[in-house]
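Postdoc handover notes: sequence design on the structure in folder B. Input tokens:
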């Protein structure tokens, strides 16, 4: 496992992180414990969760695992607050997250989304307050555009507040908007980039077909909002091209998609969501096999092919 610096925090994190979106929402606590044990044993040190995952169930699972396994000092712990990010809500959500996680502080507390209806100064001021209280060591954001992150950095600097040290964007073969402005900004400012959804919430596995409803019980069925993000003619064509490459190379669609994301040089860490131990192993296998330059180029141009 490779380990990399997270922004200017001084923290070092694994190049693959454990995403907690499935815990308590798609898998029960017993299996969640097995998944976290396996991730830790394989060298993963960043464990990321959020109050929005399973209405707090993910944080509860992580908290119980940390306490049972006595792992708090062995990992980098991150969580997030979603919704309308008023100061009152940010501070209250942080308190509830700490209770569920059974810790006094986290390493990274993140704004889960950009809040259009709340002044940015109010949100950033609340995050600063959490740092001052010692309830988080560092702060970051998720799902911010490059422009939104730049606004946040400028405003924070003008107040002398703790800056956003990391950003957590969606990034995979068919979701690549961050390459235009966010990644160059983070490179220039030394901001950590922790990407999520390397398989497009399962879209790149090939299980979804254009013109057909999602299979019952799949993520696109349970959370229909994913369809708005991924369902387009261009994306479905990209999946079919990926399927052809899989048949041509003898490698799985999942393996190819994971290998491409894990080999990007402009990111710090890729979060891996898992409903089984195999889901973690397949990410390590994809990273180990890697890609030839030709295959990397062909994967990188899927949406244009």
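Designed sequence:
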């Amino acid at each position: 496992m490779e380990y990399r610096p997270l922004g200017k925090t001084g923290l070092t994190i694994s190049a693959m992180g454990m995403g907690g979106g499935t815990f308590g929402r798609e898998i029960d606590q017993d299996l969640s414990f097995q998944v976290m044990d396996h991730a830790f044993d394989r060298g993963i040190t960043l464990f990321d969760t959020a109050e929005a995952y399973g209405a707090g169930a993910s944080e509860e699972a992580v908290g119980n695992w940390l306490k049972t396994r006595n792992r708090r000092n062995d990992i980098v712990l991150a969580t997030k607050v979603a919704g309308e990010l008023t100061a009152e809500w940010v501070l209250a959500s942080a308190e509830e997250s700490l209770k569920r996680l059974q810790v006094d502080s986290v390493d990274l507390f993140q704004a889960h989304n950009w809040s259009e209806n709340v002044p940015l100064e109010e949100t950033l001021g609340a995050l600063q307050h959490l740092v001052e209280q010692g309830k988080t060591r560092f702060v970051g954001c998720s799902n911010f555009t490059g422009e939104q992150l730049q606004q946040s950095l400028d405003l924070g600097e003008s107040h002398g507040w703790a800056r956003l040290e990391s950003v957590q964007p969606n990034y995979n073969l068919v979701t690549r908007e961050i390459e235009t402005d966010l990644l160059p900004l983070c490179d220039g400012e030394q901001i950590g980039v922790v990407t999520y959804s390397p398989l497009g919430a399962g879209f790149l596995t090939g299980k979804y077909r254009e013109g057909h409803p999602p299979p019952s019980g799949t993520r696109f069925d349970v959370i229909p909002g994913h369809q708005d993000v991924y369902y387009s003619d261009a994306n479905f064509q990209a999946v079919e091209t990926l399927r052809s490459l899989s048949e041509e190379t003898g490698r799985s669609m999942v393996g190819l998609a994971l290998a491409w994301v894990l080999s990007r040089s402009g990111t710090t860490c890729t979060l891996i969501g898992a409903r089984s131990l195999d889901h973690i192993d397949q990410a390590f296998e994809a990273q180990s096999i890697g890609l030839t330059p030709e295959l990397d180029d062909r994967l990188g141009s899927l949406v244009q092919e």
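Context for whoever picks this up: The chain has one domain: 3-202+264-296. Don't rerun without checking with the PI first.
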